[in-house]
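Suppose a colleague, Dr. K., hands you the sequence of a protein chain of 138 amino acids and asks what its three-dimensional shape might be. Before reaching for any lab equipment, you can write down a predicted structure in token form. Begin with the sequence itself:
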Amino acid sequence: MLVAELVLEYIKALIWPLFMLFIFLRYYEVIAHLIPRSKIRITLYGIEIETTLSELEQVTFQNLGGSLSPKQMELLNRLFKEGPIYFNRGIPKDSRIWIRPVMNAGLIKTLPERAHLGETQALDLTPLGKLLMRKRTQ
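The predicted structure, expressed as tokens, is then:
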């Protein structure tokens, strides 16, 4: 009798997690399809924006001009692995052309902040840039 009660208690404890696992496995495609449409709220400069993750990704890559070039990706990798890159006399003119879109997309910042690329002392990743690189290396 004691064994039967013990088995019954195990069944009671396991039935709900097993049921949820079954539902998740059975409707995985439906759940996965709904997640990209999930809305997130972001507050920027006191303005609350509701958007989807896919829309946020699309806007970021439009700011980049479509996709990252090998030079841009190399810069992001270096900043992620080594930290800020320092310059004696600002960023050279020939490099500003391909660095500017990465900065405009909000992935890197100048130090001091808001300095012109020709006058900046260093470049570093923004929190968005760190998030992108952390996810890319996982």
